[in-house]
Design brief:
Blueprint: H1 8-12, H2 15-20, H3 32-44, H4 48-67, H5 72-90
Helix pairs in contact: 3-4, 3-5, 4-5
């Protein structure tokens, strides 16, 4: 019985592979060092600088999530969770690393 040879590149061109992949990104709100850094920078700024820094941070993270294959809805949910985690850090109630 003779087996048909398939090149390895054909395995990656498979329709099934293209439609079955899913992206799992480490949750932004669990990136504790990044949350502490963002909170510290926000607390050190005043006036419009706070808003500009926050918007620029969110845009950068959003673009990174989208580039990783995360949907718009999932990226927005990640940023919402990040906002809560940063606010908790600023309020002195940081999210536990075990949570």
């Amino acid at each position: 019985m003779k087996r048909e040879r398939t090149s390895q590149l054909e395995l990656f061109a498979s329709e099934a592979l293209a439609t079955s992949a899913s992206v799992h990104v480490f949750p932004v709100a669990r990136r504790h060092a990044q949350i502490k850094e963002i909170a510290a920078k926000l607390e050190s700024k005043r006036g419009g600088h706070v808003t500009r820094y926050w918007h620029s941070t969110c845009r950068r993270l959003y673009r990174g999530l989208i580039a990783s294959g995360v949907s718009h809805e999932a990226a927005q949910a990640e940023l919402d969770a990040l906002a809560l985690a940063v606010q908790a850090e600023i309020d002195g109630h940081p999210v536990s690393k075990e949570a």
